[in-house]
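Quick review question:
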């Protein structure tokens, strides 16, 4: 597979002529050769988006809606391409690819519905004969930087919402999923999006810092949205701050799943399996810490381990019908193994699974994890999860909050009033009672607290992120002044 840059709706090679290769996580064979954008290419993309903003920002809601709805239909028609491409580039089983594509089509349609919800308000005033009001207006050029792990959904929201609000977008794809991200951009071009409204860039990994620096510093870029690691998000926020440019950041997670002493164990295990092992646990919302009351811990861990052992492991790039595919790279497997070895050496118990062999790892559960183990604090981002045993509700809440992150969480308990009280005290942008930590609906606001970032995607919240508020008054021209 090959990809190019797209600027002004024209596919082109990098100005230097350079390319880079994305290799399969298991085979290590080249699966995609992509154009390696230069700093000059990045500046050209920003300038193009700035020029397009002059007209796109004035486009009426009906036209924006038409394009977004058409893009949704086209995206769905590319499902088979996404399935095959995501299997090769990022080891995605078909279930995760389908979830991404169909969820993104729904997101496009939700964004289409927002185009007539961008509203200001009237403001009471003491000035006679004066109308005081606010307008919500598009910002300008939005820089969208998206990772590989939820490549379609995360790109969809980073493109569709800014465009729905009348902005233009420079979309910097992930070096790990260049062809997957190109397919999303192509859906917009095929839907009739005007030239320059969406410009598509790929860059070699070694050029990422220079390309991003150039884009953040470009005067046409007004806002940045980034999804990825907390480490990189902090760097981007610091660079944006020097330019006085706001960011929307969705960063790392260490999602806690609290199992109270009255929980439906079978239901909790079903949610645990889904939340821990969908796409090999490489989702920002993946359940990485089960906080389980000791009264039910033995029963929960035994059933959880039994269900996890039954999950098929394989490589979807070879056509395997698996639930657990490979992690993104062999180095990721090495990193997870180091966390596993550290925990076992410090007293954790292996309930099921075992170390990664290269990029392939079975569903793994570590029981009796405690503070002092690296895996207690660090994001694992793989098919491995942990169980921390606690005594009572207060300890459960304390342990659930004993993390630098706050993106998603879950609470299981039969007494919904008590479960709601627990949920209200968990420091997280989303908490699901008797449901999995991995959930997303385009009409619901999504984002994190603490080191999981700030700002919200989805729902009406995105209007705040991608528009400016302007105060406007209409006053009598002959009004008196004190001097």
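Suggested answer, residue by residue:
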């Amino acid at each position: 597979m090959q990809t190019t840059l797209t600027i002004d709706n024209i596919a082109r090679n990098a100005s230097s002529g350079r390319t880079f290769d994305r290799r399969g996580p298991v085979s290590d064979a080249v699966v995609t050769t992509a154009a390696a954008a230069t700093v000059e290419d990045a500046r050209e993309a920003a300038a193009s988006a700035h020029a397009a903003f002059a007209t796109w920002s004035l486009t009426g809601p009906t036209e924006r809606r038409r394009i977004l709805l058409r893009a949704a239909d086209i995206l769905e028609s590319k499902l088979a391409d996404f399935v095959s491409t995501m299997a090769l580039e990022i080891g995605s089983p078909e279930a995760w690819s389908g979830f991404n594509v169909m969820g993104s089509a729904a997101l496009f349609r939700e964004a289409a519905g927002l185009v007539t919800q961008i509203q200001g308000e009237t403001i009471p005033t003491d000035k006679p004969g004066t109308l005081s009001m606010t307008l919500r207006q598009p910002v300008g050029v939005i820089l969208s930087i998206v990772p590989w792990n939820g490549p379609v959904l995360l790109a969809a929201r980073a493109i569709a919402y800014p465009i729905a609000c009348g902005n233009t977008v420079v979309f910097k794809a992930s070096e790990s999923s260049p062809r997957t991200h190109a397919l999303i951009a192509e859906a917009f071009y095929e839907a009739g999006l005007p030239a320059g409204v969406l410009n598509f860039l790929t860059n070699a990994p070694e050029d990422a810092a220079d390309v991003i620096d150039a884009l953040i510093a470009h005067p046409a870029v007004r806002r940045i949205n980034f999804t990825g690691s907390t480490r990189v998000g902090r760097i981007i926020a610091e660079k944006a701050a020097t330019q006085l440019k706001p960011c929307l950041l969705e960063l790392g997670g260490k999602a806690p799943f609290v199992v109270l002493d009255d929980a439906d164990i079978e239901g909790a295990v079903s949610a645990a399996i889904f939340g821990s092992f969908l796409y090999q646990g490489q989702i920002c919302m993946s359940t990485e810490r089960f906080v389980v009351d000791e009264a039910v811990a033995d029963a929960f861990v035994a059933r959880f381990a039994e269900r996890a052992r039954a999950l098929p492991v394989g490589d979807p790039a070879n056509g395997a019908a698996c639930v657990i595919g490979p992690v993104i790279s062999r180095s990721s497997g090495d990193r997870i193994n180091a966390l596993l070895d550290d925990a076992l050496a410090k007293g954790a118990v292996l309930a099921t699974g075992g170390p990664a062999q290269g990029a392939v790892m079975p569903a793994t559960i570590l029981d009796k994890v405690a503070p002092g183990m690296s895996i207690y604090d660090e994001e694992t981002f793989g098919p491995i999860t942990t169980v921390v045993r606690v005594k009572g509700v207060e300890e459960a809440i304390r342990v659930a909050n004993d993390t630098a992150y706050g993106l998603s969480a879950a609470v299981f308990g039969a007494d919904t009033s008590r479960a709601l009280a627990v949920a209200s005290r968990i420091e997280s942008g989303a908490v699901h009672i008797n449901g999995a930590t991995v959930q997303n609906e385009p009409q619901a606001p999504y984002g994190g607290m603490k080191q999981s970032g700030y700002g919200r995607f989805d729902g009406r919240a995105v209007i705040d992120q991608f528009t400016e508020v302007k105060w406007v008054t209409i006053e009598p021209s002959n009004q008196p002044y004190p001097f």
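Why it works: The chain has a mean pLDDT of 96. The chain has 15 helices and 23 strands.
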